[in-house]
Write a structure and sequence with these properties.
By secondary structure, the protein is an alpha/beta fold. The protein has 12 helices and 8 strands.
Length: about 300
């Protein structure tokens, strides 16, 4: 089956990026959102992505940087890439009616908050509305697809497709099946990832955190643990990492990029671990992140998190 009609459920940091990249690559894209308020929050993200893509293309033309999610080096054409950005921006549809959004979907990409109950509720609403042909994937960064497979009513067509942030530059995605996923569905999703200019990495065994976040999440926990236990401040912790490793971003800069709400949801999954078993001060992290969130400091998306933008 040739996938063409793509629905992204959720217009957050990654949901909006996935939608824009798919539209840039020529797919028909709809973003399903739960409320008018969600549209108000999502549209500025799409506005910003249009500008980010155009800025990146300008830098590519000047040979200041390269983004394989936008073009191959040997076939780069600045005018064509700019035209694709503008077409993508104009073509993405925002839809509040779930039934209407998925009525002809070939692929639904769930990109909602890392909240088990909310995801289950979404899949239960989605399942009876889907055409038989539809493949469903979750972009969950830590939760296993097997946790949700039965709620989709299409276990053989359900798996994970997890993206890194800034996907037009960091064009990597992880494709992870659960035990009921068919080879056909897995192969279709691998091909889709390639068609939207990603490098798909197969994950052969279910693993919370997949490849990237199995390494990244403990790193971020370690940084936040240093902060909430009063060892040092975010800027100094970042500098220790930046100067000591030569990395382009420190852990708190990464948290601002990922979004503090996502970080909070992940931390909350560990809060109930007995303190004598917990390797980190999860309760302290949750309290700290909640304070930032309550103040509207969600990271880059709101122009302020641990840093101002």
């Amino acid at each position: 089956m040739k996938l063409q009609n793509v629905v992204v459920a959720g217009g957050g940091v990654l949901g909006s990026q996935i939608a824009f990249q798919a539209a840039y690559s020529g797919f028909n894209v709809t973003i399903w959102l739960r409320s008018e308020g969600s549209i108000t929050r999502t549209q500025p993200k799409l506005d910003n992505l249009k500008e980010k893509y155009l800025e990146t293309i300008t830098k590519m033309a000047k040979k200041e940087m390269w983004a394989n999610g936008i073009s191959d080096y040997d076939t780069f054409n600045e005018e064509e890439c700019r035209a694709k950005v503008l077409k993508a921006y104009e073509s993405i549809k925002l839809e509040l009616d779930l039934k209407k959004a998925v009525s002809n979907a070939d692929l639904v990409i769930e990109s909602m908050a890392e909240n088990v109950e909310q995801k289950i509720e979404f899949y239960q609403k989605l399942a009876p509305l889907l055409p038989e042909k539809t493949i469903v994937v979750t972009n969950s960064s830590t939760l296993l697809p097997s946790k949700f497979a039965k709620y989709t009513l299409r276990k053989e067509k359900f798996l994970s497709l997890h993206f890194a942030n800034t996907i037009w530059v960091n064009n990597m995605t992880e494709v992870m099946a659960q035990k009921y996923t068919s080879k056909e569905a897995f192969d279709e999703v691998m091909n889709f990832a390639k068609e939207i200019r990603m490098v798909p990495l197969p994950v052969h065994k279910e693993k919370s955190g997949y490849l990237l976040n199995s390494m990244l999440v403990p790193f971020l926990f370690s940084a936040m643990d240093l902060y909430v236990n009063g060892v040092s401040d975010p800027q100094s912790i970042d500098k220790a990492w930046l100067l000591g490793t030569g990395a382009p971003k420190g852990p708190f800069q990464i948290l601002d990029t990922v979004g503090l709400t996502t970080a909070y949801n992940i931390v909350m999954m560990y809060v109930k671990i007995p303190s004598f078993l917990a390797p980190y001060n999860f309760k302290g992290m949750a309290k700290m992140l909640k304070k930032y969130i309550d103040e509207g400091k969600l990271g880059i998306s709101t122009k302020e998190g641990f840093y101002k933008y």
